[in-house]
Amino acid sequence: MSRIGKTKNRRLLCAVTAFLMIWTIASPAVIYAADEPIRISVRQILSAFPSAESESFVYRLRPLGADHPMPLGSTAEGYTFTISGNRVTEISSWRAVRQGVYRYELFPVTGREKPEIVYDRRMYTIEIYVDAELKVYIVVRNGEGEKAGTIVFTHRYTEGGATEPPSPTSPPATAIPPEPPGETSPPAVTLIPPEPSPEPTEPPEPPEGTSPPVPTAVPPEPTPSPEGTEPPEEIVEGGTDEKPPGEVGPGGGF
């Protein structure tokens, strides 16, 4: 091997070792020794199936690189396996033979789907880190990129077929019962607010330089007496010729 090749290998070894040290401290992972096979567990849950043990589902482990190690029995499409009923299957027939970082995808393979089954279509990403001593570190992530402790697929059986939940609708309008005959509602009274009274107005101010007029008192006119009438004559005591009864004047007598 040339010096250039040895230098590249050393740099790669140092980079992988440093990465594994930092990554191991920050996030614990599954670790296998060099003489141990790589093991990945896959759990299947069948919910509400009438006969769960008779149901089987297919899964596939697909490498994301051409030089990735694969389990025995793999093809160009990947490693395909089947799980029946509620069980846990372990992929363990492979080993790490050289240092490096390897990535895989694990997902269900659905052929002819049944309408009464709701399939779990999640996809997991598996990252395998192998150091210079061929120790293996495994990290599993779910579809959102978050670390997952286990790989679980849950398939659900539904009566009458899998349907989407109905969209919420507005409640029906409440019918108003008719009023009984002979009873009428009183007419609505509309209250009209009174008009505001006009504000008092002040008399206009006289023009500048003029004094206000002084009111003059007018004496009442005398009442005219009726025409052709004279004032009554005054009666003077002792001035009449009438005599009181019983008295006889001279020359007469009884």
Rg of Cα set: 63 Å
End-to-end separation: 209 Å
Strand content: 15-25%
Largest sheet: 6 strands, antiparallel
Helix share bin? under 10%
Mean pLDDT: 74
- Which class of secondary structure composition applies to the elements? mainly beta
Write the SSE topology.
Blueprint (H helix, E strand, L loop, with lengths): L2 H24 L3 E3 L7 E8 L8 E8 L15 E6 L3 E4 L8 E10 L7 E2 L5 E7 L5 E6 L9 E7 L97
Parallel strand pairs: 2-10
Antiparallel strand pairs: 1-9, 2-5, 3-4, 3-6, 6-8, 7-10, 8-9
Describe the structure.
This protein has 254 residues and is mostly beta strands. 11% of the residues are buried. The C terminus is likely disordered. The longest helix is centred in the first third of the chain and has 24 residues. Strands 1-9-8-6-3-4 form a six-stranded antiparallel beta sheet. Strands 5-2-10-7 form a four-stranded mixed beta sheet, with no helix packed on it. Strand 8 and strand 9 form a beta hairpin. It is built from one helix and ten strands, in the order αββββββββββ.
